[in-house]
């Protein structure tokens, strides 16, 4: 039996006031227990797609299925949305007149007292909320409210959970902990999680699959590793990190097979290593450097006229000549070279 829990076929939605589709012919499959990130630039259609997945909005064309059930129909209910698909909005929708503990406890109200208490306390602890248990949402910061919304959403061990920008107000070390806790909880409950994020690190760091949307269209769906290392085009390559993109004919002669053929080559900054002159494939001058904490980001102008991003553990002053070896690279479909981000 197929373990696909949620799938869309040729899903499209154009808002009345617009000419362009917010979501255009999106066909997507999500398997049971999977963690999927929907990512893309601002206005790409991520939130609209999430709302269509939850049955909160009627598509113009196409279908959404939850198991064997057509979700589209739920958009026309008095209270729209499929009852088993839980969506946490960007504005959290907490109960303002109930405490943090009561908000988390709400979905557990049909369980026995001991289970309610045990699960609420566990979630308060996991999401670092013990100190706020008796406070009201208005007394909390945005990040604290966001953690309450996550705890509340997970309290009922949902089969499927949709989150819109769940980490947007949580930062630093706490964000890493929250992401880890969320991953552990969804694994424990076998919850299928689909979340929207514009943050590429969040999209790559704890997901099984990433879907990149641009202009309402699904550009690529892949594992985080493949998304980063095997992008289908320059837009995808650049969306997930800095990338040196140029024509293969500009690379040192004989460096790649068929050097003379017209190929678009992508080299990530970490695929260029600062080395000794005799081992180098390229040499050039440092134009500028930025301190990034655990490394420096260098901008280098190669002697062959290439402008390159390079990571280095050591700082280099502007105008210093450095030598670089290429440790890896890949080719992209031939398309006009687009500008760096
Ligand atoms: N209710 C609406 N009425 C009209 N147009 C809308 C509506 N909601 C969204 N849009 C438009 O649809 C497109 C997709 O919007 P959507 O909010 O889905 O994008 P997004 O990728 O979630 O963006 P962001 O990351 O900025 O939140 C945008 O052009 C937006 O202006």
From TrEMBL:
<keyword id="KW-0547">Nucleotide-binding</keyword>
<keyword id="KW-0813">Transport</keyword>
<dbReference type="GO" id="GO:0022857">
    <property type="term" value="F:transmembrane transporter activity"/>
</dbReference>
<dbReference type="InterPro" id="IPR013611">
    <property type="entry name" value="Transp-assoc_OB_typ2"/>
</dbReference>
<dbReference type="InterPro" id="IPR008995">
    <property type="entry name" value="Mo/tungstate-bd_C_term_dom"/>
</dbReference>
<dbReference type="InterPro" id="IPR003439">
    <property type="entry name" value="ABC_transporter-like_ATP-bd"/>
</dbReference>
<dbReference type="Pfam" id="PF00005">
    <property type="entry name" value="ABC_tran"/>
</dbReference>
<dbReference type="GO" id="GO:0005524">
    <property type="term" value="F:ATP binding"/>
</dbReference>
<dbReference type="InterPro" id="IPR050093">
    <property type="entry name" value="ABC_SmlMolc_Importer"/>
</dbReference>
<dbReference type="InterPro" id="IPR027417">
    <property type="entry name" value="P-loop_NTPase"/>
</dbReference>
<dbReference type="Pfam" id="PF08402">
    <property type="entry name" value="TOBE_2"/>
</dbReference>
<dbReference type="InterPro" id="IPR017871">
    <property type="entry name" value="ABC_transporter-like_CS"/>
</dbReference>
<feature type="domain" description="ABC transporter">
    <location>
        <begin position="6"/>
        <end position="240"/>
    </location>
</feature>
<dbReference type="GO" id="GO:0043190">
    <property type="term" value="C:ATP-binding cassette (ABC) transporter complex"/>
</dbReference>
<dbReference type="GO" id="GO:0016887">
    <property type="term" value="F:ATP hydrolysis activity"/>
</dbReference>
<dbReference type="InterPro" id="IPR003593">
    <property type="entry name" value="AAA+_ATPase"/>
</dbReference>
<dbReference type="GO" id="GO:0015697">
    <property type="term" value="P:quaternary ammonium group transport"/>
</dbReference>
<keyword id="KW-0067">ATP-binding</keyword>
<protein>
    <submittedName>
        <fullName>ATPase FbpC</fullName>
    </submittedName>
</protein>
